[in-house]
Amino acid sequence: MVALDTTRFSFVSTLSTNFPSKSVHRTTKPPSLSVSCSKSSSTDSNGDDSKRLSQQSSWETKDSEGNDYLYRLGKEADNMNIAVGARSGIIDDLFAGNFLGRDSDIVFDYRQKVTRSFEYLQGDYYIAPLFMDKVVCHIVKNYIAHLLNIKVPLILGIWGGKGQGKSFQTELIFQAMGIEPVIMSAGELESERAGEPGKLIRERYRTASQVVQNQGKMSCLMINDIDAGLGRFGNTQMTVNNQIVVGTLMNLSDNPTRVSIGQDWRESDVTNRVPIICTGNDLSTIYAPLIRDGRMEKFFWQPNLEDIVNIVHRTYEKDGISRNEVISIVNTFPNQALDFYGALRSRTYDRSISKWIDDIGGVENLGRKLLKLKKDEKLPVFTPPEQTVEALFESGMASIRKASLYTA
Ligand SMILES: Nc1ncnc2c1ncn2[C@@H]1O[C@H](COP(=O)(O)OP(=O)(O)OP(=O)(O)O)[C@@H](O)[C@H]1O
Ligand SMILES: [Mg+2]
């Protein structure tokens, strides 16, 4: 346990040296906020009352203007300044500093909701090398941007056909690199309240930067299907929110270390730079200045035959399907998205599931069997179907027949 903590914190210190903005800001100007823990009530009763800022506040904390900090925290409903609560020497030592030895993190639970860890991605997957290269290079370039004598675009826009593995492989890479990303999806880019999505992006960006600062993990902001939220199709109108979101992203890529969330500028508004990765099907529907080269690096992703065979082979391997058999499946169903081949395998389960339903007494008894099991009752065992090339071919044909109904 102790050993684990040590490695974690040593990582924090290595990382923080990589962020000049933070260290520069620390050496050039002292923090504007001075905070100290309140004296115990016995001291107060000894006539120390003159020091207290207000009778209501139990915390003798001043902000840079000498005002009661607790009052200010209350006034700013969306306060993001978690550093105050997490710093050793600032709040009570019982909760930080001497006891834990380091800064604690009081909003850890909150952040877990927007960040994502990838425990569900178990098993062995194949990541196409070109894809891996591009994403890893973008992330690393952004983390060491201050050491490079070039302009590094903050945003990587991965685009290409649907179901080609843009989101899935990016998540696999996050898992492999131990990155804890903050995720946004296109749905969050629109709101009935104008300005809300733009603010959300800035908040999520800062949250990602705080993951780096407080948890010592690498992080980034991932926006899935950005063109669905931002793109203009045909004669659709550009909404106020669209404009604000585009403006916010452009502003972030121009000033990655200075991110306001709608209050007056404070020292703590200087954030660490964190890379942004967007996926989308067609980036050309997005406002051109946002996707120009200095702001967004674009990467068109389409797996080639070898990538597809490798990816599909890795998922079928455990069923005993050989590489040559995979090649024949891919050749029989060409021009299909990656999720098609995954679906073939799931489809072969359908027949076994129908049989299993019959075994447990048919559809009429399904509800009782599935949901109202008695204590010592057990569901009949489900035997997964044996995967054969023939079964996969058959479910492929069935999928194609179904798809032709839609397009007919
Ligand atoms: N490397 C891989 N290994 C195994 N399966 C994969 C891999 N890449 C993609 N898949 C499968 O393909 C499916 C679709 O991939 P994904 O959702 O990433 O596509 P996408 O390019 O983001 O599509 P969209 O543009 O529609 O968002 C995944 O759910 C997964 O089942
Ligand atoms: Mg996707």
Uncertain spans:
1-47, 91-112
Radius of gyration: 27 Å
What does the average pLDDT come to? 74
**Shape by Cα distribution:** globular
User: How many individual β-strands?
Assistant: 7
The ligands found in this model are: adenosine-5'-triphosphate, magnesium ion
CATH class of the largest domain: Alpha Beta
Could you spell the SSE succession in H and E letters?
A: HHEHEHHHHEHEHEHHEEHHHHH
Distance between the termini: 62 Å
- Biggest sheet: strands, sense, closure? 5 strands, parallel
Counting helices, strands and paired strands, the structural category is alpha/beta
The CATH architecture classification of the largest domain is 3-Layer(aba) Sandwich
What is the fold named in CATH at topology level of the largest domain?
A: Rossmann fold
Describe this structure in words.
There is one protein chain. The protein is α/β, with parallel strands linked by helices and 408 residues long. The protein has three domains: 2-42 and 55-104, no CATH class; 114-300, Rossmann fold; 305-407, Helicase, Ruva Protein, domain 3 (Orthogonal Bundle). Helices cover 45% and strands 7% of the residues. The protein is built from 16 helices and seven strands. It has helices at residues 2-17, 20-28, 41-45, 69-75, 83-86, 108-114, 129-143, 166-177, 196-215, 226-230, 240-254, 305-316, 323-332, 338-359, 366-371, 389-407, and strands spanning 34-35, 61-62, 155-159, 182-185, 221-224, 276-280, 296-300. Strands 4-5-6-3-7 form a five-stranded parallel beta sheet. A two-stranded antiparallel sheet has the order 1-2. Helix 14 (338-359) crosses helix 16. The radius of gyration is 27 Å and the shape is globular. The termini are far apart. Mean pLDDT is 74; it is low at 1-47 and 91-112. Adenosine-5'-triphosphate (ATP) is lined by residues 125-127, 162-169, 225, 279, 281, 311, 315, 338-339, 342. This is Ribulose bisphosphate carboxylase/oxygenase activase, chloroplastic. It comes from Acer saccharum (Sugar maple). InterPro entries: ATPase_AAA_core, P-loop_NTPase, RCA-like, RuBisCO_activase_AAA_helical. It is found in: Plastid, Chloroplast stroma. Residues 158-302 form the ATPase AAA-type core domain.
